[in-house]
Amino acid sequence: MTSAPAVLVLEDGTRFPGRAYGAEGRTVGEAVFATGMSGYQETLTDPSYAGQIVVQTAPHIGNTGMNDEDPESRRIWVDGYVVRDPSRVVSNHRAVRSLDDELVEQGVVGISGIDTRALTRRLRDAGVMRAGIFSGEDARLDPERQLELVRAGAGMAGRNLSAEVSVAETLVVPAVGERIGRLAVLDLGVKASTLRHLSERGFEVHVLPQSVTLDELRALEPVAVFYSNGPGDPAASDGHVELLQGVLRDGLPFFGICFGNQLLGRALGFGTYKLPFGHRGINQPVLDKETGRIEITAHNHGFAVDAPVEGVVESPAGFGRVEVSHVGLNDQVVEGLRALDIPAFSVQYHPEAAAGPHDSTYLFDRFRAMVSDALLKEEGTDVPSDGSDSLPREPQNDPSDQSNSTEDTH
């Protein structure tokens, strides 16, 4: 542990002095809080956190160290990290290094020893805002200069980060078990556990760069398309929306999660908006309106779809009837969309929930059933007219879903 001084500065001028944690220096990003009690490794390596300074509401972080089995992507993506009480020791048989060492190695500037409860309440009441962490020599900068640097930083509204987190070249994950066909996954910040769930359901997963064109996607001849989670403002991703509209017009089955849900909403003609402080954690209750079940879900999003929560409506973009399928019980935010006249649905949360909870993994089975339905219809086999009888509506036990820790994300 370092004893160097550090300070966190919010754009409203609020200051939280503490001690340096991880790399020393300065960093600026959007300050957000995550409510997961554990699983910080999954949080840190979730590409959806790009551009953000993550505040952990759980007070004790770092006790299980870092391992080489749980990362959700190729690197840590957070722009800064805030904890109250970093663990002084690492105690886990899978740990290969400490969290502090990993933050230093990857150049992530953090701060410890601050009142994260007070900071969280500030963000909850005033809304997320730009912030900066200044440690070591940068902690000694004039406070006005620090505030000036924070206010000069980029906010999340209007920001497109897809190119920063997406793969540069196509990556193929082989299907496990009986192969259904090629699945085109648009990588907007996809997590490794998502790809695992898809491949284990028989898809040969082709992870595509976010810059892929509709013609390039068609050349792949996929049986379906999947849009992943990711960072940024969906209103700044018009190209991805146009690509998705082409996919929907082609009649390809579609499943989107998190950022993918927001982009489906925009492709269908609905708007999106920025939430005051977003949903980030592993304890978010969501109502499945069709089954009446309440699922505890993993979230990581700061934007939401603006669509009527009740009733069936016509897609403003001309894709037929649409309904909101899932609703957040904390604030009635749209948490899922289902198109009734085309094979497309999405959810705002993370059904893969790498480290838990696992209430929603059945959605991958629902997607597989929808794709199988579409393939049978192409072959002229008699199937239910709306495919409803073939879709599992209750969460299914997934024996392959064995995670090694318990956390969030989104």
Automatic annotation (TrEMBL):
Tell me the residue numbers annotated for binding L-glutamine: 48, 230, 232, 259, 262, 300, 302-303
Which UniProt keyword terms apply here?
A: Amino-acid biosynthesis, Arginine biosynthesis, ATP-binding, Glutamine amidotransferase, Ligase, Nucleotide-binding, Pyrimidine biosynthesis
> Superkingdom of the source?
Bacteria
Q: Where are the transmembrane segments?
A: none
Nucleotide-binding among the record's keywords? yes
Q: Which residues form a coiled coil?
A: none
Q: Give start-end positions of Polar residues composition bias.
A: 397-410
The protein's matches in Pfam families, at most eight in alphabetical order, are given as: CPSase_sm_chain, GATase
What ranges does the record give for the region Disordered, renumbered to this chain?
Answer: 375-410
Instruction: Quote the InterPro entries the UniProt record gives.
Output: Anth_synth/Amidotransfase, CarbamoylP_synth_ssu, CarbamoylP_synth_ssu_N, CarbP_synth_ssu_N_sf, Class_I_gatase-like, CPSase_GATase1, GATASE
Q: What pathway does the annotation place this protein in?
A: Pyrimidine metabolism; UMP biosynthesis via de novo pathway; (S)-dihydroorotate from bicarbonate: step 1/3; Amino-acid biosynthesis; L-arginine biosynthesis; carbamoyl phosphate from bicarbonate: step 1/1
Q: Supply the Gene3D superfamilies for this chain.
A: 3.40.50.880, Carbamoyl-phosphate synthase small subunit, N-terminal domain
Does the UniProt entry include the keyword Transcription? no
Identify the EC number(s). 6.3.5.5
Biological-process GO terms, alphabetical? 'de novo' pyrimidine nucleobase biosynthetic process; 'de novo' UMP biosynthetic process; glutamine metabolic process; L-arginine biosynthetic process
The signal peptide stretch is: none
GO function term, MF aspect, one: carbamoyl-phosphate synthase (glutamine-hydrolyzing) activity
Q: What ranges does the record give for the region CPSase, renumbered to this chain? A: 1-182
Residues forming the catalytic site: 258, 350, 352
The catalytic activity, as recorded, is: hydrogencarbonate + L-glutamine + 2 ATP + H2O = carbamoyl phosphate + L-glutamate + 2 ADP + phosphate + 2 H(+); L-glutamine + H2O = L-glutamate + NH4(+)
Q: Which residues belong to any copy of the Carbamoyl-phosphate synthase small subunit N-terminal domain?
A: 4-134
Q: How does it assemble?
A: Composed of two chains; the small (or glutamine) chain promotes the hydrolysis of glutamine to ammonia, which is used by the large (or ammonia) chain to synthesize carbamoyl phosphate. Tetramer of heterodimers (alpha,beta)4.
Question: Which family does the record claim for this protein?
Answer: Belongs to the CarA family.
The UniProt function text for this chain reads: Small subunit of the glutamine-dependent carbamoyl phosphate synthetase (CPSase). CPSase catalyzes the formation of carbamoyl phosphate from the ammonia moiety of glutamine, carbonate, and phosphate donated by ATP, constituting the first step of 2 biosynthetic pathways, one leading to arginine and/or urea and the other to pyrimidine nucleotides. The small subunit (glutamine amidotransferase) binds and cleaves glutamine to supply the large subunit with the substrate ammonia.
Q: What is this protein called?
A: Carbamoyl phosphate synthase small chain
